[in-house]
Amino acid sequence: MTKFNELNLNPKVLKAVEEAGYETPTPIQEGAIPPALEGRDVLGIAQTGTGKTASFTLPMITLLARGRARARMPRSLVLCPTRELAAQVAENFDTYSKHLKLTKALLIGGVSFKEQDALIDRGVDVLIATPGRLLDHFERGKLLLTGVQIMVVDEADRMLDMGFIPDIERIFSLTPFTRQTLFFSATMASEIERITDTFLSAPARVEVARQATASETIEQGVVMFKGGRRDREASAKRKVLRALIDAEGESCTNAIIFCNRKTDVDICAKSLKKHGYNAAAIHGDLDQSQRMKTLDGFRDGSLRLLVASDVAARGLDIPSVSHVFNFDVPSHAEDYVHRIGRTGRAGREGKAVTICSKRDEKALDAIEKLIQKEIPHIDNPVKIEEPKEDTQKTEKKSRASDSKKSDRKRDKEAKPRGRREESGPAVIGMGDHLPSFIALSFDERRAS
Fold first, then answer.
1. Taking the mean position of all CA atoms in its chain, how far away is CA 85?
2. CB 65 within 8 A of CB 149
């Protein structure tokens, strides 16, 4: 088995790796680090939780160990889809470059331009950024990308899913043609293949797992949910979620709960807190300080349940997540792999449970087709009964209707007949109130 000290990494990088407690590289690291150190382009494909971040940080630090950064001209660039993932990559660089004098800057939203400008002006070896904020700095004339030697696109599939294709293509055009490019992703769609064919030169393709597969250490299950009345379906679904969490007992040390919409993230988190659960929400509409505070609480164990949207939770490196609950079935099958990949990381065991309603069955079929595996069904811990009040109302209305019909029939039978029916034809318009005198014929009135 290969060891890190066999990969030709810088001795000071190796020292930092050993101090972090690692001796043996993961398959993606073992496959990607050697060609990256040779200066080749790399296309790395691996499921989440396999150590993709170290696959590019370790060789980058080794390659950048010699040289000096110039003002406003970073020597390397790492593009990330979200602020959280960018911050996580920055932490990795801090961990592995602590014995080297390399500088870095983090360009993400929620932080003032002034602070970021000051870092860039001093010159940085590693620039870690989200595409939007990077282009903002470039448009303001505060940044030049002509000195980039190494460019990394992390979580490439998510970058493309989020509509960053035009931004990525533009950023590529701003960097030198001679740059080294590293692409890392969990899944590789056909559109990504087109991008890599355009911007990568004879890349070393490193694929350590079948595309869109989930780790075998994750126990998966799905609860088929029937909500009854539509106006109470969401409430009933949250009740099922609470019952699933309770059913796991102490084995559920912490969990990430995924919702498809940001509004549902907030509602679900508030509902859990209302019922006494230690939960908090994280999504793209929250400010950066609040998001980082929530993530720090989840990492240090002071927060048990993290309710999240896909964008906010993508790429989070929290090794000890015991459970993932899909409150909603993801609309894109690939997102299922990313979601459940938050648990069962680094060889640990994990569990992922999905709540599936009738209208989500088609999406569930797509997921099972993608992962080439049928997800076992588990019993719904809450028995959803048809609302009794609907039946009671129907029966009440039926009894009332029968009662009215009976009353009308009885009134009709009991109604006294007028004298007009005995003595002659009725006079139109007078009804039962016709006076007996008028009812008489002309001859009868003369005789009387």
1. 14
2. no
Q: Decide: 129 and 169 in contact? Cβ < 8 Å.
A: no
Q: Length of the chain in residues, anyone?
A: 448
Residues forming a β-bridge with 153: 79, 183
- What pLDDT digit, counting tens, does each position of 87-110 carry? 889 999 999 999 999 999 999 987
Structure tokens of 299?
Answer: 């990492």
Left, alpha or beta for 240 (phi > 0: left; psi -120 to 50: alpha)? Answer: alpha
**Token pair listed for 166:** 């035009």
pLDDT tens by residue, 105-127: 999 987 888 888 998 999 999 99
Helix (H) or strand (E) holding 300: helix 288-300
Express each pLDDT in 120-159 by its tens digit: 999 999 999 999 999 999 999 999 999 999 999 998 888 8
Mean pLDDT estimate for the chain: 84
Cα dihedral 28→15→298→45 (10° resolution): -10
Pair of tokens at residue 431: 């009804």
Tokens of 179: 């740059």
